[in-house]
Amino acid sequence: MGADLIAATINLKPSSSLFGEGYSVIMAGSSNPAFSKNVSSGGQPTPMLATPQGAAGVRLVDLTIMADGDVPGCVLIDWQCGEGSGAWDVMFRIEHAVWAQMRLHGAAAGYFESASHRHPTPCSPKLCLTAP
What's the pTM? Predict the structure, then answer.
């Protein structure tokens, strides 16, 4: 049980697994200038958790994904995995400004089960889909 404050993008490798135990939190740090930048005037958002394009076997299990403050230039999860990948019991807890909860692009595929989100404050996080 605990929170891991992320200061830079975590790039997962093919067949990587992140398993939470109890209440495990992966939190985007608002002190990172790349996460905190304003991308509305141009530029690309920075992912907190990035998966390899087309890779199989990437698994996210029993995790809570959130930010410790406003991170308007952050994509919490940048998902490009291929078949055989998935997320089970992954919760997005959005209490601050983020660019997107999850961005699916490239050859993105996978299985998602019991994924949920909680927005206790008025905000408009989004799920972004882009054509390959």
Answer: 0.82
Strand partners, 10: 49
Q: What residue spans define the domains of the chain?
A: 2-121
With H, G, I as helix, E, B as strand and everything else as coil, classify residue 58: coil
Q: Do 59 and 83 form a contact (C-beta atoms < 8 A)?
A: no
Residue 70 CB burial class (10 angstroms; 0-12, 13-18, ≥19): middle
CB environment 113-132: b (16+ within 10 A), e (fewer): eebeeeeeeeeebeebeeee
Give me the sheet containing 98-104, strands edge to edge: 10-11, 46-50, 71-79, 98-104, 127-129
Cα separation, 118 vs 91, whole angstroms = 8
Q: How many CB atoms lie within 10 A of CB 4?
A: 12
pLDDT digits (tens, 9 = 90+) for 73-84: 899 999 998 888
- Of 26, 116, 105, the closest CA to residue 71 belongs to 26
Q: Is the pLDDT of residue 27 over 90?
A: yes
Tokens of 124: 């408009």
